[in-house]
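Sequence dictates fold. Below is an illustrative record:

_____
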Amino acid sequence: MNYPVSPPPASNFASEVDLVFYGLVILTVVFTALVGVFVLAFAIRYRQGTKVDRSRPVHEHLPLEITWSVIPLILGLVMFFLGAKAFVHMRRPPANATEIFVIGKQWMWHIEHSNGVRENNMLHVPIGVPVKLTMISQDVLHAMYIPAFRVQYHVVPGRYTMLWFTATKTGEYHMFCNMYCGVQHSEMVGTVVAMEPQDYAAWLANGGNEVKPMTMEQRGAKSFAVRGCANCHTGSDTERAPTLYGISGKTRHMQDGSNVVADESYIRESIVNPYNRLSAGYTQTMPVYANQMSEDEILDLIAYIKGLGGPKPAVAGGPQTGQVAGKMAPPVVNADGAIGARENPPHKSLAVGALNRPNLEGNKE
């Protein structure tokens, strides 16, 4: 019969985690056995009624005390170093890692790839390629746990967390929620499918479980247009709102004098709770989208905003195509996912980002 002690190692972290885990197990067993043997030996030798010399008890023994202090200290420092090294490695994904988005829900895992392919309770990844999971919960605390990859991290509502790995063996591996999340917690399971890179590329090209999927950026452009965001957020800063072009990764100046880097978490917060951090020179005119959008739509909007690039250039002799009086019109997304522009945007007061109507007596960003 085959009874494996642990799941088969299938990622770059497996050897590091196994070294720390089995090292701690061995040290625990050895020292527990050693202490147990001495306790048992002394209990038998000095039990009541035995004829042993008790006239000269030893109260101190410097070499012995140094030995049982220094050796455990060295072993403890070695284990601390190995554990800290593995932890730091796990929290620093490579810059070229393939990003996949994960939403934890009661009680399922929703996966979204950057080209728009979606899957539920299945995660397809290439082997030999670093993969970064950007995760968020739609309801309660969850924890993404892939035993064969030796990775786990909390999935938290209202905040993006990260987990990364490089799969090393093709195959199918279990994926669990490792944080009690409700009555069907035990059913929140899934499968990680590790594939050869060329097979993974073909799987993505075929749309995974979809025939002709829109990319996240295309779906985000569609939401941007449907919600009328471009009525306020145009190709350049206006009195109504700053531009979103080139915002990703840039430092934003806040009303309270602080500075914030416009990463995914900031953009998400600017959508769902825009008044938490107001940009300098703007007031509370942005609609609050908390509980108005699903996490899927928010991720798509973030992908679109991150891809907007730099400021739109001015065109001599008149406004740009799709612009009216210097304002960028909402994009139009066709059935095939192509993004176009309207000539005359409808007047709405919807916007995206914590970037609102300015205080006319202040300075815009």
About this structure: Helices lie at 14-45, 62-90, 197-205, 216-226, 264-272, 295-306. The chain is about 30% helix and 20% strand. The CA atoms of residues 272 and 290 lie 4 Å apart.
